[in-house]
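pasting for the record
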Amino acid sequence: MSTNSPVIELQYVAGIEEIIWGVVLVALTLGIHSFGMLWTLRFSNAFKARFAHQPAFAAGMFKLILASWLIMLVHIVEIIMWAGFFQWKHCFVNFSTAGYFALNEYTTVGSSFNLPLNWRLLEGMIATAGLLGFAWSTAVLLALAQEFQDQQMQLLKQQRQKHALAAVPAPLLANKPPNCPHVPP
């Protein structure tokens, strides 16, 4: 930097409009997310009811994959909402750039782009909304995965009991002493 060039120091001060819009956008993000997660759980329960008569590994995995896709769709809708706001406020030259920025900030990856100085607070607020959304999504997906694993472990336990019972000769089962821990019931 040469000694002759003037030093221009930009000072950032958060404005009330920026704070209000940030709070509104985070609230809208969480509102969209709540409907999306309820929709995902409702779909998952309907899927489970449809295939409950015959629990199978493939059906359970398919349910988890579909739930993951629905969760991804919810996140994409939220990112599009943020990108739409940035485009509406003329923060970027086109929607594609606004979407790229929103995606990178929402996922906390970060971007080489920055918002105009009067909207800088939203960079942190979109990341906060993304973190909350991902945490909520993780909880929903973990609940569905735990249900699937419990179902599969129950099926495995039933199969093992069935095989253990088949391995014991019939005369032994008839003469079994009461409460014998070594012979299956």
